[in-house]
Amino acid sequence: MLGIDLEAARRLGCGAGGWKTLLVLVTSAAVFFSSGTGRVSIWFSSSSFPAFSSQSDIAASSSNEERVPPPITPPPPPLLPPASSPSSAPPGFLAPSPSPVGYGPKAPPLRSDGPTSTTFAPPPHANKDRSAVSSPPEPVSIKNNTNATTISPVPPPTASSYAEEVNASAPVVPISLRETDIQLWQAKREIAVAPLVLNDSDLYAPLFLNVSVFKRSYELMERILKVYIYKEGEKPLFHTPVLSGIYASEGWFMKLMEENEQFVVQDPDKAHLFYLPYSSYQLRHHLYVAESHSMQPISSFLRDYVNSISAKYPFWNMSRGADHFLVACHDWATYTTKLHLELQNNAIKAVCNADASEGIFVRGKDVSLPETYVRNPKKPRASIGGNPASKRPILAFFAGQMHGRVRPILIHHWKEKDDDMRIYEVLPKKVARNMSYIQHMKSSRYCICPMGYEVNSPRIVEAVSFECVPVVIADNFVLPFEEVLNWSAFSMVVAEKDIPKLKEILLGVSERQYEVMQMNVKRLKKHFLWNEKPLKYDLFHMILHSVWFNRLGQIQQQ
Ligand SMILES: *[C@@H]1O[C@H](CO)[C@@H](O)[C@H](O)[C@H]1NC(C)=O
Ligand SMILES: *[C@@H]1O[C@H](CO)[C@@H](O)[C@H](O)[C@H]1NC(C)=O
Ligand SMILES: *[C@@H]1O[C@H](CO)[C@@H](O)[C@H](O)[C@H]1NC(C)=O
Ligand SMILES: *[C@@H]1O[C@H](CO)[C@@H](O)[C@H](O)[C@H]1NC(C)=O
Ligand SMILES: *[C@@H]1O[C@H](CO)[C@@H](O)[C@H](O)[C@H]1NC(C)=O
Ligand SMILES: *[C@@H]1O[C@H](CO)[C@@H](O)[C@H](O)[C@H]1NC(C)=O
Ligand SMILES: *[C@@H]1O[C@H](CO)[C@@H](O)[C@H](O)[C@H]1NC(C)=O
Ligand SMILES: *[C@@H]1O[C@H](CO)[C@@H](O)[C@H](O)[C@H]1NC(C)=O
Fold it and tell me: Taking every annotated instance into account, which residue ranges of this chain make up the domain Exostosin GT47 (predicted)?
């Protein structure tokens, strides 16, 4: 199959101020016409992407991060918005049930329109004494798929904090529970009584909301979790990871998941989670009709795919998709789930475009997938690291194209206004000659990460890689791994409306606070890096952990 450099196509299209790019394939070359300027470029590609070799290439490329604007604006509203309270839950929805303290965001309701339920008293916790104190017996309402009707009396909650959270009169709504779900339920109970971890040689506690919870959850994931990967789906739309470019996160996850021997299980009956191994990048590349401005072909394709696996196997219907997950980094990935309600509402969507304001990405259920810009797939960790706090003379740095609503405001207020604020559009050549994009990131105290067309930006992980404190400007963006990480410990989040006060805000951080944050970024780095062979607590495992953790949150207790 001919390698096609879509990034290059976009660079042309976007660079010309237009984005309509016509793709013409010639036997051994891809020819790109940019309709805006009539410029033509031919890539003779033996590999899918040109490997960057010099710092200046990298800098040029970084500062020219490419995006395709959405063909539909604004994104369509969800067909069925998630219910926020029991009374607003439509029939057949589970009332939301709060998570235990320190357990992360509340899981949203699970759509369920199955038959009548029975009430299932789960097995007692392994450690009765501790569970009696911290975690009272919790009834789980289920529909036993094998028709058993085990009805046990529901013990009342005992801990007062828990009693406040549980509304005993809330309607009991059916969900299908498999044997593997019971294992998840037990894991969830064990996490709720996680032994206290004060410090750990591998985990730096201040980075986490609750390091005890994270450590326990991670251990249990390693011990218990089994993932089934559907074999269905033709290449290259499925099973064909793209390992470079700005959408590389989905590719790396797919590659490492499919190669994995620890978590992957061949027998789907043993699986806790089901992975839909498609590439949103490949779907966009192969199914989008040039100039159509419509995501419809991609959305219908995904709808048909899910219908086919839910007809062929019992698993989708048993959970209505809630134990299925996708990992997709293209901006459109979030929107292209909308033609299949259960895919949109129930499946766990690990997506880069994690925008909480659109009603499609659901905080606590879906996973904010870090966007990583991989320049050279042979060396995903090339040139990482950066200067210590004392050797970062530049206060703030940004260089990039003018996408979306935030960057023009940033440029308006700060471009060439202040020597401390190195805010550029594309990094000017004369500046880059003296100091590359990456050198800027390694020498700046703060790296500004404004949203592009969508809320996400590869700059966040880029900043972390170069040990620069990220400053996120993207209202409604759900930060990666916010289920477990304490973002205030190593980043700044600045509201879009505060862009005029940006310098003041940054200068408001004391030297001591800054040094702590910068050291924390350094310690955080390993959690955001890809490894050819996954390492404990690295990016692959962090993503899988968040899917696991959010799935545990879905195992409802009423
Ligand atoms: C479940 O119930 C249905 C209808 O009542 C019945 O046809 C089916 O055989 C039952 N399955 C099992 C495993 O008992
Ligand atoms: C479901 O029903 C089957 C058959 O009666 C039984 O063996 C199994 O233990 C039940 N599972 C649960 C979770 O009750
Ligand atoms: C408990 O749930 C019932 C039924 O949904 C509702 O009417 C009631 O207001 C709830 N009570 C509290 C305290 O949330
Ligand atoms: C972390 O979670 C554990 C287990 O739920 C709890 O005992 C502990 O108090 C929590 N720690 C903090 C700092 O919240
Ligand atoms: C933390 O770890 C260090 C060594 O790694 C040890 O000396 C110290 O006692 C530990 N502190 C606590 C509170 O466990
Ligand atoms: C799952 O549900 C769909 C829609 O209700 C149905 O068409 C399909 O046949 C079901 N699959 C199985 C395996 O029963
Ligand atoms: C060039 O970069 C160095 C740091 O690498 C800096 O000290 C110097 O001021 C820069 N010169 C110009 C003209 O920007
Ligand atoms: C998160 O970090 C901030 C800044 O270090 C700190 O003030 C806050 O208490 C931390 N939150 C948690 C839950 O540890």
Answer: 223-506
